[in-house]
Amino acid sequence: MSCQYNFLFLFLCGFAVLTVSIKTCGKEILEGTSCTIKLITKNSEKPDEIEWYHLTSDTIVLLWKRGKIKKVVEGVSKEEDGSLTFKSVSLKDTGKYKYKAFNNDGTEIGTGEEEIQVYVKAPKPTVTFDCDADSNATLTCDTGNRTDLTLFWYIDTIVQNETNPQMFLTFTQIQKNQTYSCSVSNPVSNEQSESIPVLCHTGHTGPTGPTGPTEPTGPTEPTGYDPGPDTEVSGSKFNFMVSILAGGGAFLLLLCVLIICACRSCRQQKKHQQGESRLDHLKLCSEYLHGQ
Ligand SMILES: *[C@@H]1O[C@H](CO)[C@@H](O)[C@H](O)[C@H]1NC(C)=O
Ligand SMILES: *[C@@H]1O[C@H](CO)[C@@H](O)[C@H](O)[C@H]1NC(C)=O
Ligand SMILES: *[C@@H]1O[C@H](CO)[C@@H](O)[C@H](O)[C@H]1NC(C)=O
Ligand SMILES: *[C@@H]1O[C@H](CO)[C@@H](O)[C@H](O)[C@H]1NC(C)=O
């Protein structure tokens, strides 16, 4: 029955990896992520009593004593070792957390503080422009009036020293036929607008009124997605997160492949042993997968 052990081994492995991979809350977290703040005790002693506080809002988040939850706020849970897990962090979870752990004779065996900052994902901005009578233009980077973001302007692919949501262009600058885009970022996300050309009618026919085509007029190829030197810095953490997520996906894929392989070898083994029909083995395998 080595095939049974194969499966047991696989499941234990998978379970262990998944358990370990519960994400620890970093200092900066994207809204909606699930993560854990670790509780550490002296000599990893098992606590008998645990208290978790959110200092910023002066609330008790979790009280646990002798295996019983005495108090817990919505959206958090206690790990086996006393660590605090958020199902899905929101803006109001921002701030400082403090824990205390005691053993069964009331001695404090661990205490610590952790600060987290939750960010909402940056929206994809859009660039619009208005022309004045002299064919100067004012570009606006629309971020849905979010004020918690760092903004950069790009001309073609070059990042500008301009962080206001509006940028003024003179007639002469517009004549260079360049494309304009803006990017917004916070420590956990980064979005860049489409690159648009700016076309203001040359003033020879007099004021044609502010023409502000919000749609990019020509179907310009999405140029300028090469992130400039400045976004590379702010985007690096984001990229790091993406790579972690990708890693998780790769792991799941690997697990699937392993399970399929085990399933096949299981089928073959059984075939040798009893020579039953193929369908029965498939059924057997799927029963292992579901039943375990
Ligand atoms: C257009 O820009 C030029 C150069 O900055 C400026 O002298 C002129 O007053 C501007 N025109 C309008 C209508 O603001
Ligand atoms: C955001 O913009 C909308 C219009 O687009 C406006 O009605 C609203 O008052 C703005 N909110 C803030 C906080 O500025
Ligand atoms: C960017 O602009 C600010 C003020 O607008 C100025 O103090 C700073 O020197 C500029 N930096 C560069 C690299 O041009
Ligand atoms: C910009 O485009 C206009 C018409 O499309 C053209 O006449 C002008 O020479 C171009 N300017 C540059 C700097 O390429």
From TrEMBL:
Signal peptide: 1-26
Domain Ig-like: from-to ranges: 123-199
Transmembrane segments: 240-263
UniProt-annotated location(s): Membrane
The entry's keywords: Glycoprotein, Membrane, Signal, Transmembrane, Transmembrane helix
Domain of life: Eukaryota
Annotated region (Disordered), positions in chain: 203-228
Primary location group: membrane
PANTHER family: LYMPHOCYTE FUNCTION-ASSOCIATED ANTIGEN 3, SIGNALING LYMPHOCYTIC ACTIVATION MOLECULE
The protein, known as: Hepatocyte cell adhesion molecule
Taxonomy of the source species: Eukaryota, Metazoa, Chordata, Craniata, Vertebrata
